[in-house]
Amino acid sequence: MAATSGGSSGVFTSDLSTSDFWMLLDKGYMPVGLVLGNSVYSMGVVGGLGSAVKGMSKGEVPQITELMYNARELALGRMKDEAEKLGADGVIEVKLNVVPMGSWMEITAIGTAIKFVGIKGGGSGNKPTIVLPLDK
């Protein structure tokens, strides 16, 4: 999609649906780009052995939980850094893809960076509503 206010060239990428895009514009925001952050994280040999032993009994395996939290925060932080480089005010429609691989974990965060540009051309500025058609 092309726009007059997105990014420095006015061209941006986004994975928003048409209705999400319309509601975004109606509220005075413009997508400025698709941003992503990726992290491949390992707990190391010692942590992997410890979690394997702990996994043989019931209960939480804290090493795996910590691995997931650390990998997620790193991926989200990298996505946020990309959005800040585009001059965005925020990121919406964030999707996380988590791929556990034994003592490794890969997390990818993808979202649409947005910037407030003001309400123009009759935008309501009201909270969005969803209308479902009643005809079949």
Model description:
There is one protein chain. The protein is α+β, with helices and mostly antiparallel strands and 136 residues long. It has a domain at 37-109. The protein starts with 17 loop residues before the first helix and ends in a 20-residue tail after the last strand. A hairpin with a 2-residue loop joins β2 (90-101) and β3. The protein is built from 3 helices and 3 strands. The radius of gyration is 20 Å and the shape is elongated. It has a 3-stranded antiparallel beta sheet with strand order 1-3-2. The model is unreliable at 1-7 (pLDDT under 50).
Question: How would the blueprint of this fold be written?
Answer:
Elements: H1 18-26, E1 29-42, H2 44-54, H3 62-85, E2 90-101, E3 104-116
Structural key phrases:
136 residues, alpha+beta, three-stranded antiparallel beta sheet, 3 helices, 3 strands, elongated, disordered N terminus
Query: Largest sheet, if any?
Result: 3 strands, antiparallel
Q: Which ranges are low-confidence, i.e. pLDDT below 50, for 5 or more consecutive residues?
A: 1-7
Class derived from helix and strand content = alpha+beta
Strand content: 25-35%
> Mean pLDDT, nearest integer?
77
Order of the strands making up the biggest sheet: 1-3-2
- Alpha carbon gap, first and last residue: 31 Å
Please give the radius of gyration in angstroms. Answer: 20 Å
Encode the helix/strand succession as letters.
Answer: HEHHEE
Rough outline: elongated
Explain briefly what this protein structure is.
The protein is α+β, with helices and mostly antiparallel strands and 136 residues long.
